[in-house]
Design goal:
- The chain is of the alpha/beta class and 258 residues long.
- Strands 1, 2, 3, 4, 5, 6, 7, 8, 9 and 10 form a 10-stranded mixed β-sheet that branches.
- Helix 1 runs parallel beside helix 2 and helix 2 packs parallel to helix 3.
- The longest helix is centred in the first third of the chain and has 17 residues.
- It starts with 9 loop residues before the first strand and ends with a strand.
Length: 258
């Protein structure tokens, strides 16, 4: 099984194709994966690998290591565009997520006041008030919506909760009143014996309808860029992504392709 884990709480900086020079924050274990999705395309691998042994980093550990890294980069006059919460799973699952966001904002303001804070979330914890409030505080609240059709979403994202539905998550993303970015992964292939393809007309139409309801600041669309745990997946070409983007733009929605 393909598994590419981040083995530290603070990692990078790395160059993100969507966000620029990014310093990563991993709120999951350093030797395992903790996620409420089990996406067929996740570079960190499937959840079946286990959560490892190190546990979730404490709020104090995150703040200490982040400050050390920001201070070091400040002294070296290094370039930084964004502090990004991603890593080996879903960052909003951390029980101290809201407090960690507050700490990160304070440290950003102290060391790199012009740097953005981004959170890459799978949108499964938006019903938690503290999580939603924290996401309202960051510069880039980037929320996953890979399909607006339940059957396809379940094939691609494999949510842990049986009650998680597209209708519910679209409603919850809409609560941000445009203060969010929606991120959609386009792909096709097979998982088990089932065909996956969220590039067909029915899927695009459903996504555009959802984007209109959400009215995000921006939609980011992209495709597979690294090895995936499900081997029978196909990357959608940049040219095809641009055609999909054209349909989204025709609906009056700002979209970028990466």
């Amino acid at each position: 099984m393909v598994t590419v884990l981040f083995h530290s709480t603070i990692f990078g900086p790395i160059r993100s194709r969507r966000l620029g020079v990014s310093l990563g924050v991993n709120l999951s274990p350093n030797d395992g994966k903790v996620c409420s999705f089990d996406c067929v395309y996740c570079e960190a691998g499937y959840n079946s690998q286990g959560a490892g042994t190190t546990g979730l980093p404490s709020r104090e550990k995150v703040a200490k290591e982040l400050e050390e890294k920001l201070s070091e980069m400040k002294r070296a006059e290094e370039k930084l565009d964004v502090i990004t919460f991603s890593g080996n799973g879903e960052p909003t699952l951390h029980p101290e997520f809201a407090g960690i966001i507050d700490d990160t904002i304070a440290l950003r303001n102290r060391y790199f006041p012009n740097v953005k804070i981004s959170v890459l979330s799978n949108s499964t914890r938006l019903g938690e008030k503290s999580v939603a409030t924290a996401l309202c505080k960051v510069d880039n609240n980037i929320l996953k919506l890979d399909s607006a059709i339940d059957e396809t979403m379940r094939l691609i994202d494999q949510p842990a909760s049986l009650s998680f539905t597209c209708e519910k998550v679209i409603e919850q993303i809409s609560q941000f009143r445009g203060q969010c970015v929606v991120q959609t992964m386009f792909l096709r292939g097979t998982h088990g014996e089932k065909r996956i393809d969220n590039t067909v007309k029915e899927e695009i139409d459903a996504l555009i309808k959802a984007y209109k309801l959400i009215s995000p600041r921006q939609v980011m669309i992209y495709s597979i860029d690294r090895k995936t745990p499900e081997q029978q997946l196909e990357k959608v070409s940049h040219e095809e992504l641009e055609k999909i983007a054209g349909k989204i733009r025709d609906a009056g929605i700002t979209v970028t392709v990466s």
